[in-house]
Specification:
By secondary structure, this protein is of the alpha+beta class. Helix content is 22%, strand content 34%. It has 3 domains: 49-136, Nuclear Transport Factor 2, Chain: A, CATH 3.10.450.350; 139-246 and 377-403, Nuclear Transport Factor 2, Chain: A; 248-375, Glucose Permease (Domain IIA) (Distorted Sandwich), CATH 2.70.70. Helix 5 (154-160) crosses helix 6. The protein binds zinc ion.
Length: 403
């Protein structure tokens, strides 16, 4: 008898343990998130889904791509469901279809197509029905601050700091009305800027928006801040709450087109120089580089003009006209209306020219002037109410830029 007693205790103990497990299990199944987390960390994590990536190749149509997948039987239903949000006939080579399956059952659950850098199409399957939506790409965002000093060019010096090329272009873009990065930078200038880095599944994908930037050019400090005020006020502003956007862009060639093409960064052939009689700015760029109108206007002339080769003139208002010469090809005709930044032609070497470059002139009241020295009126100011909001929202960035 004395020998059996412990056995009974063990059995009772065992029953209590079972009861305890039963209670725990029941509790878990009601979905307490804490318990689920504990359980997940105690046992190996079993993924819920698996993803298959199908690359869209040159010449592929939606039908052709889908025929390569295991879900071709659903292609019509997916197409129909997607139609009112996005026409899958427009899918592009170089992009991809992501197919998501249940991990354990292998059932097809969802198709995702990233339309651009911002938005994706999702088509979710429930049995035999398909539901589509457009949604923002769910990036994880990290905010970073980068800085550098000019020893050769903004592009080269930023690249030396291991800054993503696309972020450097973003930085140059927020100053495109105030700084000509081909002409203005000097050794010793400094830059510092704050921008978003976007990640997907923990992997870096691309830079997002530039939130704020500072460029000190020959001791003069320029700043630009992103501000999401309202429909009329979502853009970049300087420290005083004036829109960064001005009547003219500083350069007729976008930073992105000539930044990476040259080992020495952006270059120019010759600057405005009264004593030599060269009253223009020459930008060296590869033949075919797009040339943009620096401001809104009307095409005054577009055609052959002797030593200027193919030349386009844009009349901006009663005071200013700009001329763009030696084009390989023109993209506008006399009388066309253009907006600031519109492509009006392409760099070439027509007329009297020894190599591909853009000869750019600014004419004010009939006299050729140095566009770099022209002082433009400040951009549109925010209302007092909006300015207050702007100053509050950008305070952190202002402090970060001056650290
Ligand atoms: Zn010239």
């Amino acid at each position: 008898m004395t020998i059996k007693k412990p056995i009974i205790y063990i059995i009772i103990g065992g029953l209590l343990l079972l009861a305890g497990i039963f209670v725990l299990f029941n509790h878990d199944s009601r979905g307490g998130s804490e318990e689920l987390t504990l359980e997940a960390s105690a046992s190996p994590v079993i993924p819920e889904i698996k993803k298959e990536v199908v690359a869209i190749e040159a010449g592929d149509t939606y039908g052709v791509v889908m025929a390569r997948t295991n879900i071709s039987q659903h292609s019509t239903k997916i197409y129909e469901a997607a139609k009112k949000h996005y026409d899958l006939a427009q899918i592009r080579a170089g992009y991809e279809l992501e197919l998501i399956y249940g991990y354990s059952d292998g059932e097809f659950r969802e198709l995702v197509y990233k339309i651009d850098t911002e938005e994706e199409l999702s088509v979710v399957r429930t049995n035999d029905t398909f539901q589509a939506e457009l949604r923002p790409i769910p990036y994880e965002v990290k905010i970073v601050t980068k800085e550098g000093e000019i020893t050769s060019s903004l592009y080269e010096d930023a690249m030396r700091q291991n800054i993503d090329e696309r972020a450097i272009i973003g930085l140059a873009d927020i100053f495109q009305w105030t700084i000509d990065f081909a002409m203005d930078p000097r050794v010793g200038d400094t830059f510092r800027f704050i921008y978003e880095e976007r990640y997907l599944d923990g992997e870096y994908v691309r830079p997002g928006r530039v939130l704020a930037g500072k460029y000190v050019n020959e001791g003069k400090r320029y700043t630009s801040y992103y501000f999401d005020g309202d429909d009329d006020n979502t853009e970049y502003f300087d420290e005083d709450g004036n829109s960064a956007q001005k009547m003219f862009l500083k350069a007729p060639i976008a930073f992105k087109y000539i930044s990476s093409g040259f080992t020495t960064g952006m270059r120019y052939v010759e600057a405005f120089n009264v004593s030599t009689g060269h009253r223009a700015i020459d930008y060296a760029a590869s033949a075919g580089t797009p040339i943009r109108s620096v401001g809104d206007g009307t095409i005054l002339s577009a055609g052959w003009n002797g030593s200027y080769g193919y030349m386009v003139s844009v009349r901006h208002n009663g005071t200013y006209t700009t001329n763009y010469a030696h084009m390989s090809r023109m993209a506008v005709k006399k009388g066309n209306k253009v907006k600031q930044g519109d492509i009006i032609g392409y760099v070439g070497s027509t007329g009297f020219s020894t190599g591909p470059h853009l000869h750019y002139e600014m004419v004010k009241n009939g006299v050729k002037v140095n566009s770099l020295a022209e002082v433009m009126p400040p951009g549109k100011a925010l209302s007092a109410e909006m300015k207050e909001k702007f100053l509050t929202e950008t305070q952190t960035w202002r402090e970060e830029l001056d650290k």
